[in-house]
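wait is this the right file?? whatever heres the structure
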């Protein structure tokens, strides 16, 4: 193909690109803007590290030593919620709306009635539960909603009532006013239950309440924003979350992620559209053309493929072999040093090397750093690694004993080595 022909083809594709940009680019909604992933979306997801995720709260709970291993609920409660009669199981939910269906709500009420705990922080609660615990399940909050950028929260507990916690609403890195929801205390069904008002704002409006149900307890919080990452990055927010968790009895936390989103009836069953009355099936191209971002991706893919075929040309030089990645030889280096120390009988140097390697392993794996291991450090390592405190304490006791010893026998060194190897092989 001649050079002029190639230039003509390129100009043709550039013209086509401009036409497509004019046709598709003008259809974008000016109010909505382009389809982008917005990090300020309220997800309340415990794995989301964005401003409105709850990753920091889950990390706090994971190291609080008052809750067991987490269970993620990613299905309806009838299938995902577990009840161990030998412990306090805790149903845990934080989100804008709890989309729990009636059958799941009834299952949760039976779960609490059997002596377990449920904590729900939301702006919209399951109607089935509200119908049971409130006079009017459709009206939970005060009619006079507060619209402000800042609120000051407090607890009713005598040891905490003198402290207030500042919460500022931030969106897109800007302080903005928002609606703050508070419970209508006249709507609690005090004939069947006796609510305990745990938390309020400084004006006395209730946002945190505890209600008995059967042999268990329901905890309701009306402002889930308080537990998002952006709030917990501030000292007041972090302390508020700590004290909130202290009100919940210890147990095994089961975090509900499934009901953060709405699930249609067809998605919750084994529905088979044999009669052709179900959702209309669409082709892949129809779906792509309905979304401008996918349409542009397809157009650019086609253009790029054509240009590649036309202009890949001759290579200007031979292929350059890929550089081999460098292997991490640090562990081999440690083993080599250990062998040299063993040959020379330098057991004390070998023990110091093992201790430094062990502390580096903990720092890199669990992000827990210290030069002087104490009881708090050992407790954190035990929680993260799932190795008992006793076994970890034994390792550091041997380090301290041998570091000051002049003579260390081979048997003592082998005993220390076996305990460290047990940790490496069985840690989480």
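ok assuming it is, sequence goes like this
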């Amino acid at each position: 193909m001649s050079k002029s022909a190639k230039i003509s083809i390129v100009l043709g594709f550039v013209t086509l690109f401009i036409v497509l940009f004019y046709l598709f680019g003008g259809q974008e909604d000016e109010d909505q803007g382009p389809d982008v992933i917005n990090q300020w979306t309220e997800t309340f997801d415990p794995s989301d590290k964005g401003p409105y995720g709850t990753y920091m709260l889950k990390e706090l709970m994971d190291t609080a030593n008052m809750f067991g291993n987490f269970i993620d609920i990613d299905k309806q409660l009838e299938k995902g919620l577990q009840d161990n009669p030998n412990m306090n199981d805790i149903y845990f939910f934080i989100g804008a709306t709890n989309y729990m269906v009636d059958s799941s709500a009834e299952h949760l009420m039976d779960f609490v009635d059997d002596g377990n705990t449920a904590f729900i922080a939301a702006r919209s609660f399951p109607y089935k539960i509200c119908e049971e615990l409130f006079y009017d399940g459709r009206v939970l909050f005060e009619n006079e909603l507060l619209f402000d950028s800042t609120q000051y929260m407090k607890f009713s507990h005598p040891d905490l009532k003198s402290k207030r916690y500042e919460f500022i609403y931030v969106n897109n890195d800007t302080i903005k006013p928002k609606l703050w929801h508070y419970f209508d205390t006249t709507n609690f069904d005090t004939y069947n239950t006796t609510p305990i008002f745990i938390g309020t704002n400084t004006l006395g409006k209730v946002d945190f309440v505890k209600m008995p149900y059967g042999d268990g307890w329901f905890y309701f919080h009306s402002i889930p924003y308080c537990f998002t990452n952006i709030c917990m990055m501030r000292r007041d927010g972090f302390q508020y979350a700590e004290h909130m968790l202290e009100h919940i009895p210890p147990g095994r936390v089961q975090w509900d992620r499934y009901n953060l989103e709405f699930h249609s009836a067809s998605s919750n069953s084994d529905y088979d559209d044999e009669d052709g009355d179900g959702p209309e099936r669409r082709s892949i191209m129809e779906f792509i053309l309905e979304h401008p971002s996918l349409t542009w991706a397809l157009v650019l893919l086609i253009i790029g493929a054509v240009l590649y075929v036309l202009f890949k040309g001759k290579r200007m030089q031979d292929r350059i072999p890929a550089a081999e990645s460098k292997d991490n030889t640090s562990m081999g280096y440690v083993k080599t040093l250990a062998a040299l120390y063993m040959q020379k009988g330098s057991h004390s140097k070998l023990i110091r090397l093992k201790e430094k390697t062990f502390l580096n392993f903990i720092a890199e794996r669990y992000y827990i750093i210290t030069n002087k291991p104490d009881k708090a450090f050992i407790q954190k390592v035990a929680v993260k690694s799932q190795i008992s405190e006793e076994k970890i304490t034994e390792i550091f006791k041997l380090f301290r004993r041998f570091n000051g010893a002049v003579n260390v026998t081979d048997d003592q060194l082998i005993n220390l080595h076996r305990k460290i190897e047990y940790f490496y092989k069985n840690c989480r």
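Residues 106 and 308 are 60 Å apart (CA to CA). so i think its the right one actually
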